Amino acid sequence: MKNILLFIFCFQSLVLFGQRKIQGTIIYETSYTKSFIEDMKKKKQDANSNPFVIKSFLKATPTEFLLTFNQEECLYQKIEKVEEEDAIGFNTLEKIGGGDRIFYTNPKEKENFYQTEDDGDLYLVESKASEWEITKESKKIGDYTCYKAIFKTDNEKRKGKIIAWFTPQIPLKYGPKGIGGLPGLILQYQEMFVVFNAIKINFEKKEVEIQKPTKGKKMKSKEFSALMLKNSPF
């Protein structure tokens, strides 16, 4: 039944868009889950908690990221804004949202990587393909019917805590931070205690061009993690 509904929505999407290319932009905003905020407020009253850490979490401001897409590829990056005078030095919502990394995805060419800079050097780090368990659970996000998918992982601490809500009504395998591979665009994504919400979708009639990052040393994810660990001062 679940597969039949997905097929119906995909078919309706093809009829809706017709021969028109699906291209445009999406703005995602990062925020904490309500349960995480409540937990932080409780820990704030705990004498054994680190007040600096608690304060940095609670003062983190929602950060916006832009996903630019066409039918072949997409690019995801932070929307640069003027920082407020009392802004904290380390914004957890910005960091988990992707920080200054630029994420590129091209499903047909099986390309999924991000460009990042460390100590003046640029790197192109390959991202692992996401594996999902699609559930029967659905909900409305704006005008779109979305289905819940749970990220498959062997990490016990992360099991069931990485969730995506995707809509087959926009049949593109994209999402925030290089996350994707589902039969529809991800409109909401939760990674542990941070939620990415699509707050604005804009479809374009004119051609949307994607500037694929090309500068940097190509590395596998494990290689880059090992390099960062080696260069870490801690």
Defining key terms:
single chain, 234 residues, alpha+beta, 12-stranded mixed beta sheet, globular
Can you summarize this structure?
With 234 residues, the protein is α+β, with helices and mostly antiparallel strands. The protein contains 5 helices and 12 strands. It has a 12-stranded mixed sheet with strand order 7-8-9-10-11-1-2-3-4-5-6-12.
Q: Kindly report the average pLDDT value.
A: 87
Number of helices: 5
> What is the CA–CA distance across the termini?
52 Å
What is the β-strand count? 12
What is the helical fraction, as a range of percent? 10-25%
Query: Based on helices, strands and strand pairing, what is the structural class?
Result: alpha+beta
From the alpha carbons, calculate the radius of gyration and give it in angstroms: 19 Å
In terms of per-residue confidence, which ranges show pLDDT below 50 for 5 or more consecutive residues? none
Q: Quick one: biggest sheet?
A: 12 strands, mixed
- Shape by Cα distribution: globular
- β-strand percent reads 35-45%
Secondary-structure element sequence?
A: HEHHEEHEEEEEEEEEH
Strand order of the largest sheet: 7-8-9-10-11-1-2-3-4-5-6-12
